[in-house]
Amino acid sequence: MTMEPILLYGFPAGSSMGLVAAFERLGQPYRLCRVDMLAEMKNDAYARLNGRQETPVLITDEGRVLTETMAIAGWLAARDPERRISFEPRSPDADRMLQMMAFVNTGFTAAFSPLWAAFEMENAAPAVLSVLRDHGRKAVKERHDKLEAMIGNSPYLAGDHLTLADTTLIGVARWAEFHQAVDPAAYPKLAAWRRRVEAEPAVRFAQAIEDGAQPIGSGACLGHVPLAEAIQRFGS
Description:
It is a single chain. The protein is of the alpha/beta class. It is 50% helix and 10% strand. A hairpin with a 5-residue loop joins strand 3 (57-59) and strand 4. The two termini are 17 Å apart. The model has no long low-confidence stretch (mean pLDDT 96).
């Protein structure tokens, strides 16, 4: 069976927004499936697609289910012969891209876990919320300090064009603002990078999609598949 791949992306403020931008920038036909992470994800039906009840999820062009951001990014890179979102394998730029992606997808993203826990436990004891928020802000600051030091002089995280390194970070970078975890002015390199990446057409398209709009993109996106249909067709 061959078909267009389907990316299941989460809202609000899902990290998977960046993968929507990556698909759009790649320019090959794809479809999307919208998942309300607060209402549609933590249930047995969704677990048929992803037992960890998370986004993103990719239904490949062969109908296989693939989860985890790094795995989906690797799938995209392998289908990028024009190197629109990646680099030639084994090149220094490719190594740099993978290094930045790994940092973002592990410690940087995980640093927000206490803040998200506090957000989801808003009725917990004030002392518990205070500990979670204090720990989370310290962890996020420490990771921001490290990221700021890692950003080089190139326009993007791994070279002179938007790559999977940038799309991996852009969906997560706005979490600091959401949680009021750090002062953006303390990270001028990161702030400049965000302005540059958020102006990219593919990223503007992905943000509008997440907001529920129907933007005119490159034409590669062939529309949305309802979540119930995706579960019925591809859930194990």
